[in-house]
Amino acid sequence: MEAVLAHLRGAIERGEYAIGDKLPSEAELCRALEVSRPVLREALRALQTMGLTVSRTGKGTFVVASTVEDPTFGDYAASDLLEVRRHVEIPVAGYAARRRTPENLDHLAHLLDRMERETDTTAWVAMDTLFHLAVAEAAQNPVFRRVIEEIRDALARQSAFLNELGGRREQSNREHRAIVEALTDGSEHDAVEAMAHHLDRVETTLTDIVRSPRTDSDLPTEGEPQA
């Protein structure tokens, strides 16, 4: 999928598809790129997340920008989402280290074990949002949970985007484990540091995806498996 995305993104950025242009139909693109429809649809969704296209029901996909600036996840721009996460989730991790109950720790440990065994991206993304909700719950302040609930859909969309294009799952599991270990130790300092590191890595991966498109040479040649 990454190679298909890079090809379409490159065509838009080079002006082969200008702002206002309609992309070829899914059937045409599948034939031209020699990929399956599910692979193409993933790439088209990523283009929309990057803010390069919009999908209009019954009409097709249209180009609305020629460069990637700030991806959108649900109702929120990536930069806005990350800013809020830093101001909320980092101190929340510290509170959670001081206030967590044995039940909170058991829930987080069980969730983390499931995430580390999970191979399906959709299932893992769902548990990723549950993990961050569980950390908020461990802070014993219902307002924190309400804030995370408000951005839950955006978190899930961002998580899926980073896993599909940035291969974040294993790294994220390690970062989550560091957070849980800090909470288990009751170390406010370590919990804050672990959450800050986690969000730093999210930002770095997102920046790499936005700024470093792959080239058409990454498209599979005949006989190679599709992304």
Mean pLDDT: 89
User: Any guess at the CATH architecture of the largest domain?
Assistant: Up-down Bundle
Q: How is the largest sheet built, in terms of strand order?
A: 1-2
Q: How big is the Rg?
A: 20 Å
Q: Could you please say which CATH topology of the largest domain applies here?
A: Four Helix Bundle (Hemerythrin (Met), subunit A)
Sheet with the most strands? 2 strands, antiparallel
The assigned structural class equals: mainly alpha
Count of distinct structural domains: 2
**Helicity, as a percent range:** 55-70%
H and E order: HHHEEEEHHHHHHH
How does the overall form come out from the CA principal axes? elongated
Architecture overview:
The chain has 2 domains: 1-63, Arc Repressor Mutant, subunit A (Orthogonal Bundle), CATH 1.10.10.10; 72-211, GntR ligand-binding domain-like (Four Helix Bundle (Hemerythrin (Met), subunit A)). The chain is 68% helix and 5% strand. It has helices at residues 2-13, 26-33, 37-49, 78-99, 102-117, 121-138, 142-150, 152-166, 169-185, 188-211; strands at 53-56, 60-63, 72-73, 76-77. The strands form 2 sheets. The protein has a two-stranded antiparallel sheet. Strands 3-4 form a two-stranded antiparallel ribbon.
SSE diagram, text form:
Elements: H1 2-13, H2 26-33, H3 37-49, E1 53-56, E2 60-63, E3 72-73, E4 76-77, H4 78-99, H5 102-117, H6 121-138, H7 142-150, H8 152-166, H9 169-185, H10 188-211
